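Is this the right way to post C-alpha cells for a design question? Let me know if I should format differently. Anyway, here goes:
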C-alpha cells in the first residue's frame, strides 16, 4: 500500500500546484505531469497486479511481437478491434509490456484531467482524489473499458461544447475499444433530458430519472437478467466469466451508499447554484452517479456486470470540480464529504473487498513486493 499512497499524494499535490501557478504553460505542464506517478505505478507493475493484466493485455502484447497487424487481430479476435490495434502499435513501438501499460494508463488519465481542467480551471484539483481512490484501481484491471471510458469523457466534453459531430466520433471510438461503451448512448440521453429544453427544468429531473432507473433495474433483475446473459453467450465468448458466474453475485452495498451520497451532494449543491445552466449541470452529473449506483446492482446477477455502471460512475466524478468551481459556503462541505467517501470507497472496494487484485503490489523491475 505505501506505493499507492506515495503515487496518490504526488498526483494530488502536483494538481494543486498546477492550479496555483499563474503561468498558463507551466500550469498545463504540471497538470500533464501529475499523471506520471500513477502511470509509473501502472507501468512498473507485474502482470499479477490487476485481475485481467495477465489475460488479454498480455496476449495482445505477445501478438504484437509475433504477428502482423492482421495476424494479431486474428489471434485476438475475441477482443475489440481498436484495442488490438492500439496494443499492436504500442507493442511494436516499444517492444516492452511495461511501457505499453504505462502509455495505456496515460491514455486513460490524461483526457480526464485535461477535460476537467478545461471545464473547471479553478476547481479541478479535487478530481485527483476521485481519480486516485475510485478510478485508478479499475485502470489496473479493466484496461479496455477504461480506455473506452476516456473516449466517453471526450464525448461528454464535446456535448458541453455543443459539437455533436465530434461527440458521435468519440462514441464510436469508445465502442471500438469496448462493447459495453454503447452505454454512452444512455449518457447522451441523460444529457439531453437535463439540458436540451427551452425552459428551465425543475429539480424533479433527478428524482424522475432515479425512479425510472429503479423501475428498469428491478425489471431487469427479476425478469430478464439471466436470459440476457444466455443470449449474449450465444454471440460472443468475451464475457464467459459473466456467464459462468451467473447467479453468484450480490447487491453492491457501497454503490447503494453512493446513491444516497449523490442525493446529498445534489441537495447541498442545489442550494448554492444560481444559473439555470449550473443547475442542469448538477442534475446531469448527479443523475449519472445515481444511475451508476443502480446499474451496479446488476452484480446481483453476475459479479462482473457491475462494469455496466463504470461509465456513469466515471462521469459522475465531474460533479466535484464543478461544485468546487461554482459553490460558495457549501464548497468546503461538499469537498470534504467527497474526499471522505472516496477514501471509504477505496478501502471497502480494493483493500478489504480485494477487487481488481491490487494487493499485494509487486514489481520485478523494482525488485519489491508491497503488501
Amino acid at each position: 500500500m505505501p506505493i499507492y499512497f506515495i503515487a496518490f499524494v504526488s498526483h494530488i499535490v502536483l494538481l494543486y500546484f498546477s492550479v496555483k501557478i499563474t503561468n498558463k504553460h507551466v500550469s498545463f505542464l504540471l497538470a500533464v505531469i501529475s499523471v506520471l506517478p500513477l502511470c509509473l505505478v501502472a507501468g512498473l507493475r507485474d502482470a499479477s497486479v490487476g485481475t485481467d493484466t495477465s489475460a488479454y493485455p498480455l496476449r495482445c502484447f505477445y501478438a504484437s511481437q509475433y504477428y502482423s497487424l492482421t495476424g494479431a487481430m486474428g489471434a485476438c479476435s475475441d477482443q475489440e478491434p481498436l484495442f488490438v490495434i492500439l496494443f499492436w502499435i504500442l507493442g511494436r513501438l516499444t517492444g516492452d509490456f511495461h511501457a505499453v501499460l504505462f502509455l495505456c494508463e496515460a491514455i486513460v488519465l490524461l483526457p480526464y484531467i485535461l477535460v476537467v481542467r478545461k471545464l473547471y480551471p479553478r476547481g479541478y484539483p479535487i478530481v485527483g482524489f476521485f481519480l486516485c481512490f475510485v478510478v485508478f484501481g479499475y485502470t489496473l484491471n479493466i484496461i479496455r473499458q477504461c480506455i473506452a471510458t476516456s473516449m466517453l469523457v471526450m464525448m461528454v466534453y464535446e456535448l458541453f461544447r455543443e459539437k455533436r459531430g465530434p461527440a458521435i466520433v468519440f462514441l464510436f471510438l469508445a465502442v471500438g475499444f469496448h462493447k459495453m461503451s454503447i452505454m454512452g448512448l444512455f449518457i447522451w440521453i441523460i444529457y439531453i433530458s437535463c439540458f436540451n429544453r427551452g425552459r428551465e427544468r425543475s429539480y424533479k429531473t433527478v428524482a424522475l430519472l432515479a425512479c425510472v432507473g429503479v423501475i428498469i433495474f428491478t425489471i431487469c433483475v427479476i425478469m430478464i437478467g439471466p436470459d440476457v446473459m444466455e443470449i449474449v453467450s450465444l454471440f460472443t465468448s468475451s464475457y464467459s466469466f459473466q456467464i459462468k458466474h451467473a447467479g453468484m453475485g450480490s447487491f453492491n452495498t457501497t454503490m447503494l451508499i453512493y446513491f444516497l451520497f449523490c442525493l446529498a451532494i445534489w441537495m447541498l449543491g442545489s442550494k448554492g447554484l444560481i444559473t439555470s445552466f449550473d443547475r442542469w449541470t448538477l442534475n446531469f452529473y448527479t443523475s449519472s452517479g445515481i444511475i451508476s449506483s443502480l446499474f451496479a446492482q446488476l452484480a446481483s446477477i453476475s459479479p462482473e456486470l457491475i462494469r455496466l455502471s463504470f461509465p456513469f460512475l466515471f462521469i459522475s466524478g465531474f460533479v466535484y470540480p464543478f461544485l468546487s468551481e461554482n459553490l460558495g459556503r457549501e464548497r468546503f462541505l461538499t469537498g470534504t464529504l467527497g474526499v471522505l467517501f472516496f477514501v471509504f470507497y477505496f478501502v471497502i472496494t480494493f483493500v478489504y473487498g480485494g477487487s481488481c487484485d491490487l494487493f499485494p503490489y509487486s514489481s520485478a523491475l523494482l525488485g519489491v513486493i508491497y503488501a
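Format looks fine. Someone answered above. Worth noting: Residues 199-204 have pLDDT under 50 and may be disordered. The first strand starts at residue 361 and ends at 363.
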